[in-house]
Specification:
The complex is a heterodimer of chains A (296) and B (388). Chain A is an all-alpha fold. Chain A contains eleven helices and two strands; from the N terminus they run ααααββααααααα. Chain A has one domain. A two-stranded antiparallel sheet of chain A has the order 1-2. The chains are: A mainly alpha (296), B mainly alpha (388).
């Protein structure tokens, strides 16, 4: 049984990153019915933030650069998302499949841009010294990097939870998600709420990118590697549902981690896919479904 | 969501009403006649190209053209699911790949006579895996190349459509399938040849590959396959079933309320579409001589969508044109500047979806209507002239 705890810990790490990526997706999907395939490239942009900052500040300040990178990545990716929303996605509301393909086009361009700017090979970002090493708990080695990711994501989820439940902005967001027309009639500027959601969602992807630099080398196509799994979290969790996303990310992260141990990485993906198709037989709308009287 | 589907349907079904054969067409041919003329012309051009291409193109270029024709078969199939049925599949690479691997397995076994295929020896497999054994027979392998994708598509479709998983959800699920399939192929080195795929296919039913004659034969086979799938698609679209399929695309719930089994329609169409992709995969193997996970994953799957989008979804000839144009652009641009293709592909997605959702076919329609409008205007002027 000594494999259980390490796999559990590894699964939690994957789940935390997936959750952070899926948060932005689930809100833009749930609120605006927009599938943003370029979300993966916002992760990539965020991941290059500490790389660039470390280059600028020099090796001596690697730790500081890493700290600065978090807000910088949030802003860069958030603004990129805002620009995308204002210029293209806005024209496409009501056509989710077409939006999916447009944003895929954007993602291709951004990936190639990163290749031209930073080179095609993966790069390694130096983790700050205080995140190197591991915490020994009994027979278990918990790496500081993964612990930091789990802590960071927990904090962000708590903030988002409070934001949605208590703050006026968050409540407006929920109102728009539940019924756009009615929210608009009640005096909510739905356009502004959409922009804010897109900004925050994309920004969180940037933060996820910074977190990913702690797990391994990063490259121009790192986004595509995570985006498919993140969308599965959205599907399993239910649209625009924080609780759903948390549970789904945990479920998929752990399932992946244990299946990889039990079989191998390539078979695990197929088994996870099969499990999701079976799951949809019972809950086609995901774990937490928004109840409406609408037919579709 | 209801409003969404309606708008999306509108974009597609906003086909202009057929030009009504007004009175006073006088010396001009009637619009329906003009339409028949146009179709006849298109068929004639296609025939001329098929006859002339082997005479003027080098063997290398002819093989490329044959490959594009194979892609056109995929596009025709995908268009049935997406253009006419509203089921955007981002996983058609899987069906294409299944068809390709089924045939490639047979050719590898035929090549190895009674031994093991080369890559198995390299990865230390000692006896033929059970899943490979039936592929020794061409009578099993070739039908399997079409039937396996059809069955997989039918199973997936039946299970998710039944629970009303559709639209974007369905697209994302198929994409996850493509990702999982590619990873599975890479991971099972001893069974599938891993990242390299199944390579070095040199002989197909006694036809030695890689010489001018075999390339010509394969080119004609590919052209025949395009013609056959085109005719099947046309038959389907013009049938009662086709009307029902489009009705499901534009208003699934209404179709259901009218008493039709919308799921059955969708499953059938999706399965047929997958079968066409499988057929294309089976043809791809002898033409290119190799199949690898790089041909089946997420990225190639979505490239198949752009063929249909550029050509014009929900039009019969559009996907063929789209596949040929986009694939040749891909090749020539990659020869010139490798990164350029990704920029162009990205731009194509954006421009088509935002400004020309009906693709080349839509643009052609606009041009044609403007011309007809001008002609009508000219006629009116003539009429006014004679009256005064």
């Amino acid at each position: 049984m000594d494999f259980v705890l390490p796999q559990l810990f590894a699964g939690l790490g994957i789940a935390a990153v997936l959750l952070l990526i899926a948060l932005g997706l689930t809100f833009t999907f749930g609120q605006m019915n927009v599938i943003n395939m370029a979300h993966g490239e916002f992760i990539m942009a965020g991941a290059y933030a500490p790389y660039v900052l470390q280059g600028v500040l020099g090796a001596g300040l690697a730790g500081l650069a890493f700290g600065v990178a978090l807000p910088v990545a949030f802003l860069v990716s958030g603004l990129a998302g805002l620009v995308l929303e204002r210029t293209l996605i806005r024209r496409m509301y009501g056509r989710p499949l077409d939006t999916l393909l447009v944003t895929w086009g954007i993602s291709l361009v951004l990936q190639q841009l990163a290749r031209d700017l930073f080179g095609a090979p993966n790069v390694q970002v130096a983790a700050p010294t205080w995140l190197q090493g591991a915490l020994a708990v009994g027979p278990l080695d918990l790496s500081f990097a993964r612990l930091a990711i789990i802590a960071l994501v927990s904090a962000i989820v708590a903030v988002v939870g409070v934001y949605l439940a208590r703050l006026p902005h968050g409540r407006r967001m929920r109102a728009v998600m539940q019924n756009r027309q009615l929210a608009g009639c009640s005096g909510i500027d739905t356009d502004r709420v959409d922009q804010l959601t897109f900004f925050v969602g994309s920004g969180l992807a940037g933060v996820a990118g910074v977190a990913l630099t702690l797990l391994g080398p990063i490259g121009p196509s790192i986004g595509t590697f995570y985006i498919v799994d993140a969308f599965l979290v959205v599907i399993v969790g239910g649209l625009g549902q924080l609780r759903g996303a948390v549970v789904a990310a945990l479920f998929l992260g752990l399932l992946n981690s244990f299946l990889e141990y039990g079989s191998n990485a390539s078979l695990a993906k197929v088994l996870v896919f099969a499990a999701i198709v079976v799951f949809l037989q019972f809950r086609p709308q995901g774990l937490v479904a928004l109840r409406t009287r609408a037919l579709t | 969501m209801a409003a969404t589907t309606a708008t999306e349907g509108e974009v597609l079904s906003a086909q202009p009403p057929g030009p009504d054969p007004g009175p006073g067409t006088g010396g001009e041919p009637a619009p329906t006649a003009r339409r028949a003329l146009r179709q006849g012309l298109a068929v004639a051009v296609a025939l001329v190209v098929v006859v002339v291409a082997p005479l003027v193109l080098s063997e290398f270029r002819l093989a490329l053209l044959a490959k594009y024709l194979v892609f056109a078969v995929v596009a025709i199939g995908l268009n049935l699911a997406w253009g006419y049925g509203g089921m955007l599949s981002l996983g058609h690479g899987v069906f294409f790949g299944l068809g390709a691997y089924c045939t490639a397995m047979h050719f590898k076994l035929a090549d190895a006579r009674s031994g093991l295929p080369d890559f198995m020896t390299w990865s230390g497999v000692e006896s033929l895996p059970a899943i490979w054994a039936p592929f020794r027979s061409a009578w099993f392998a070739l039908p399997a190349a079409v039937l396996v994708p059809m069955v997989l598509a039918a199973l997936l479709g039946a299970s998710v459509f039944r629970r009303r998983v559709r639209g974007a959800y369905f697209a994302l699920l198929t994409q996850a399938l493509a990702a999982a399939f590619a990873i599975l192929l890479v991971g099972q080195q001893g069974l599938t040849g891993g990242t390299n795929g199944l390579t070095n296919i040199t002989e197909v039913f006694g036809l030695e590959l890689g010489n001018p004659r075999s390339t010509q034969v394969l080119f004609f086979v590919a052209a025949g396959a395009v013609a056959a799938t085109f005719l099947i698609a046309r038959q389907v679209v013009q049938s009662r079933f086709g009307r029902l399929l489009m009705a499901v695309r534009d208003g699934e719930d209404r179709v259901r309320f009218l008493g039709y089994d919308a799921n059955r329609v969708k499953v059938l169409a999706f399965s047929l579409s997958a079968g066409m992709a499988g057929l294309a995969g089976a043809l791809f193997v002898p033409i290119v001589g190799i199949v690898s996970p790089a041909n089946v994953g997420v990225v190639p799957s979505i490239e198949m969508v752009i063929w249909v989008a550029i050509g014009g979804r929900a039009t019969l000839a559009g996907p063929i044109v789209g596949a040929l144009v986009v694939s040749s652009a891909h090749t020539s641009l990659s020869e010139w500047y490798p990164g350029g293709w990704l920029y162009l592909q990205g731009a194509l997605f954006v421009v088509t979806m935002v400004w020309a959702p009906r693709g080349l076919a839509g643009l052609a329609e606009v041009v044609r209507r403007r011309r007809e409008h001008d002609r009508a205007g000219a006629r009116a002027e003539v009429a006014v002239g004679t009256a005064s």
